[in-house]
Amino acid sequence: MTQVLRFLGSLLLSLVLILGIWWLFLLAFPDIGPIIGRTPVDVFGYLFAGTDSGSQRGAILDNLWITLSDAGIAFLCGMIAALLVAAIFVMSRPVAQTFMPIAMLLRSVPLVAMTPLITIIVGRGPAVVAVMGGIVVFFPALVMIMTGLNNAPRQINDVIVAYGGDRWTAMRLSALPSAVPALFSAAKVSVPGAMIGATVAEWLGTNSGLGSTLQQALPAAAYDELWSSVVAITVASILIYAVVGVVETLVLERMGMTQT
């Protein structure tokens, strides 16, 4: 419980620092506001203190729910794909040496540049969210999960092989349990990645959720709605990150693993 409280305290401190950086940014660049720039007080007023704050807050929350659903799809698709590919790469060095450079090459292509091709292939429904968001999640998670799988104790693998176990048995009994910290690290990194991927997919592909709100608010000069949407995405990302971090702490304590 002490580690959980320490983690939540550091996360709260990070949130305070974000608010401080927000204020300092607007002070350092006064030309941005007050027409374009919005302070935390302005966002709070738009969502909670204005005459139309109820309807405005409701619209933001409705779109946030869509974005969270899209981010969940992106997170699951990206993490599952990363885990499967990482397991294959770890068990087969020739496959990893052949396809890892290709994967890194594809990662270097900007997602925006691939959007027209992706939408032509899969359409503008949930599939485009799964593909575009999954791409954002997949590559950093792949590297971290591969590192965790490769750190499995060699002695345990030798014992499994000596008793007739194959590579899949060693993966299941040795590598995967040893990679649990890496899996949680990949999950924490993937949470904001999934939100970014979902927002980009909504902006360019589905025309729904907060990604669509950002797209429409910018040319319409609806800056209160724009900044409030950004705050909603940021706060949601921090809260989900906190949930993953708490679950990580509890699971690793239960497994007797020390967090690094």
From TrEMBL:
Keywords annotated in UniProt: Cell membrane, Membrane, Transmembrane, Transmembrane helix, Transport
The ABC transmembrane type-1 domain, residue ranges: 60-248
Similarity comment: Belongs to the binding-protein-dependent transport system permease family.
Keyword ATP-binding on entry: no
UniProt membrane topology term: Multi-pass membrane protein
Transmembrane segments annotated in the record for this chain: 7-29, 71-90, 102-122, 128-149, 226-252
Organism of this sequence: Williamsia sterculiae
Protein name: ABC-type nitrate/sulfonate/bicarbonate transport system, permease component
Subcellular location(s) per record: Cell membrane
A GO cellular component annotation in the UniProt record: plasma membrane
Keyword set includes Transmembrane: yes
Biological process (GO), any one: transmembrane transport
